[in-house]
C-alpha cells in the first residue's frame, strides 16, 4: 500500500492486535517482505539483473493489493497498518542501499555502475524516516496527515528509477540510452523525494499553527 492509500487517523477503525491479524492482506504483506529478501540476495550475488528488476517490479506492482483487500473486506488491522508501510520502505530503501554497494563494484572482471550515490540513499531513507515520524506525531494529536499526490509521485518515480538502475547493470543490454535515462530518472526521483518531504513539512507547520 502506497502512502496515498493509507487511511487517515480520523477514518481508522479501533486498533486491535490479535487473531484477526492473520488474514490475507497481512499474509500478502509478509510475502512481499520475503520477496524483498530474495531480491536483495539476487542483487548481492550479481548477474541476475533482469530477474532482480522483474522481482522488484512485481513487489512494487502488488504494493496496492494488500491495502485494497484490507479495505474491501474490512480486514484493516493494527499489524497491517504498521507492517505495510514498513515493508514498502524496506523494499525501496533496501534496494537503493544494495544498488549503492554495486556502484563501481567489480563483477566478472569489469566495473559496473548502478548510478546510485550515497547522498541519494541518504535523501531517500532520511525523507522516509522523517515523514513517518512526523505523521506519527501529528496523528497522535488527532491531526489529519494523510498522504498527498506528492507521496504517490515520489513512490512511482523511485520505482521506475530503481528498475532502470537494475537493468543498466546487465551487460547484455546494449542500449546506449539506458545509462543516461537511468541517471535522469534517479536524479528526478531524488528531487521529487526531497520536494515531497518539504511539502509535508509545510503542511505540518500549518496544522500545528491551527492550535
UniProtKB/TrEMBL annotation:
Main location (coarse class): membrane
Topology of this chain in the membrane: Multi-pass membrane protein
Catalytic activity: a CDP-1,2-diacyl-sn-glycerol + sn-glycerol 3-phosphate = a 1,2-diacyl-sn-glycero-3-phospho-(1'-sn-glycero-3'-phosphate) + CMP + H(+)
Signal peptide: none
Pfam families: CDP-OH_P_transf (PF01066)
Membrane-spanning ranges: 48-65, 86-106, 184-201
E.C. number: 2.7.8.5
GO BP annotation list: glycerophospholipid biosynthetic process
Subcellular location: Membrane
Family classification: Belongs to the CDP-alcohol phosphatidyltransferase class-I family.
Key word Membrane present: yes
Matching PROSITE patterns: CDP_ALCOHOL_P_TRANSF (PS00379)
Protein source organism: Fuerstiella marisgermanici
Keywords from the named record: Lipid biosynthesis, Lipid metabolism, Membrane, Phospholipid biosynthesis, Phospholipid metabolism, Transferase, Transmembrane, Transmembrane helix
Keyword Transmembrane among record annotations: yes
GO molecular function, a single term: CDP-diacylglycerol-glycerol-3-phosphate 3-phosphatidyltransferase activity
GO cellular component: membrane
PANTHER family per record: CDP-DIACYLGLYCEROL--GLYCEROL-3-PHOSPHATE 3-PHOSPHATIDYLTRANSFERASE 1, CHLOROPLASTIC (PTHR14269:SF62), CDP-DIACYLGLYCEROL--GLYCEROL-3-PHOSPHATE 3-PHOSPHATIDYLTRANSFERASE-RELATED (PTHR14269)
Name of the molecule in the record: CDP-diacylglycerol--glycerol-3-phosphate 3-phosphatidyltransferase
Pathway: Phospholipid metabolism; phosphatidylglycerol biosynthesis; phosphatidylglycerol from CDP-diacylglycerol: step 1/2
Amino acid at each position: 500500500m502506497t502512502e496515498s492509500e493509507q487511511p487517515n487517523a480520523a477514518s481508522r477503525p479501533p486498533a486491535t492486535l490479535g487473531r484477526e491479524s492473520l488474514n490475507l492482506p497481512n499474509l500478502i504483506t509478509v510475502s512481499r517482505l520475503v520477496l524483498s529478501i530474495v531480491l536483495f540476495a539476487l542483487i548481492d550475488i550479481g548477474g541476475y539483473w533482469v530477474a532482480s528488476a522483474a522481482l522488484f517490479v512485481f513487489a512494487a506492482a502488488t504494493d496496492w493489493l494488500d491495502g485494497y483487500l484490507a479495505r474491501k473486506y474490512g480486514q484493516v488491522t493494527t499489524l497491517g497498518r504498521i507492517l505495510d508501510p514498513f515493508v514498502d520502505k524496506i523494499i525501496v530503501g533496501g534496494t537503493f542501499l544494495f544498488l549503492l554497494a554495486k556502484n563501481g563494484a567489480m563483477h566478472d572482471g569489469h566495473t559496473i555502475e548502478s548510478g546510485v550515490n550515497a547522498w541519494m540513499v541518504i535523501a531517500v531513507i532520511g525523507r522516509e524516516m522523517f515523514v513517518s515520524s512526523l505523521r506519527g506525531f501529528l496523528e497522535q494529536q488527532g491531526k489529519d496527515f494523510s498522504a498527498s499526490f506528492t507521496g504517490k509521485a515520489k513512490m512511482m518515480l523511485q520505482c521506475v528509477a530503481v528498475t532502470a538502475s537494475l537493468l543498466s547493470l546487465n551487460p547484455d543490454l546494449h542500449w546506449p540510452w539506458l545509462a543516461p535515462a537511468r541517471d535522469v530518472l534517479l536524479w528526478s526521483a531524488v528531487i521529487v523525494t526531497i520536494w515531497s518531504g518539504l511539502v509535508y513539512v509545510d503542511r505540518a507547520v500549518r496544522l500545528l499553527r491551527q492550535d
